[in-house]
Design goal:
By secondary structure, the chain is mainly alpha-helical. Helices cover 69% and strands 0% of the residues. The chain contains 3 helices and no strands. The radius of gyration is 14 Å and the shape is elongated.
Length: 74
């Protein structure tokens, strides 16, 4: 693995994480496509997806699911 490519992926993850942390709760899940692309880049290069990236994906996926039920009548 090219160390430059790994550094680039880590930089992208840092940028996406910063972007998400600056987004108001309840709309953070709109950044899921960016996370999916980043995870795909790790996978295509044969790299292990970092645990914090997987956790962030899981958290935002859960937020997306919850947002679908926020406006449902009970």
């Amino acid at each position: 693995m090219n160390p430059v490519a790994l550094d680039e992926l880590q930089r992208k993850f840092a940028n996406v994480s910063e972007l998400i942390s600056g987004t108001r709760p309840g709309s953070r899940h709109h950044h899921l496509p960016e996370l999916h692309d980043l995870i795909g880049n790790y996978t295509r290069r044969g790299l292990v997806v970092p645990a914090p990236l997987r956790q962030l994906q899981e958290d935002l996926t859960n937020e997306a699911i919850e947002s679908r039920f926020d406006n449902m009548p009970v």
